[in-house]
Amino acid sequence: MASTVIAAAASSSMAATAIRATRCYALPCLPPRSSSSSQSFPIKQVSLTATESRRFAPSQTRASSSEESPVDANEIFTDLKEKWDAVENKSTVIIYGGGAVVAVWLSSILIGAVNSVPLLPKILELVGLGYTGWFVYRYLLFKSSRKELATDIESLKKKIAGTE
Question: Where is this region: Disordered (predicted)?
C-alpha cells in the first residue's frame, strides 16, 4: 500500500515536471548573441523634399539679456511695495489673505473626503451636469434670456461695487 502511494506521488510529480517542461519549451528560443558588436543592419535612407526639409528644420531662438526683457523684477517689487504702503488696514488684508488660504486648505480636505465615499463623486457629477444643462436652457439658449442674464450680472456688479 505504501509503495502504491509513493509510486502515485512519483508519477504525479513526474507529470507536473512534464507539464512544466512543456510550458518552458513553448516559448520560442532567441538566437545566440554574437560577441562582435559590428553587426550590420540594413539602413533605409530617406530623402526629403524641399517643403519637408523646411518643416523639419530646427527652429532658431536668440538668447536675450535681462535688460531687453519687458518685465523687470525690481519694478514689480517696487510696485508691490507702493501698493502695500497705500493700504490703510494692513491687518484686515492679512486676515482676509490668511482666511483665503485656510478656506482653500479646508476645501481640499473636504473634496478629498467626498471623493473617498463610494458612488458620491459620480452622483455629484450627474447633479453638476444636470445643473449645467438647466443653466444653458434657462439663460444661454434664447436671446431674451441672455439679455436677462446680462442685466442680472450688471446689477450684481453694481451691488458689489457699491454704486447702486
Answer: 53-72
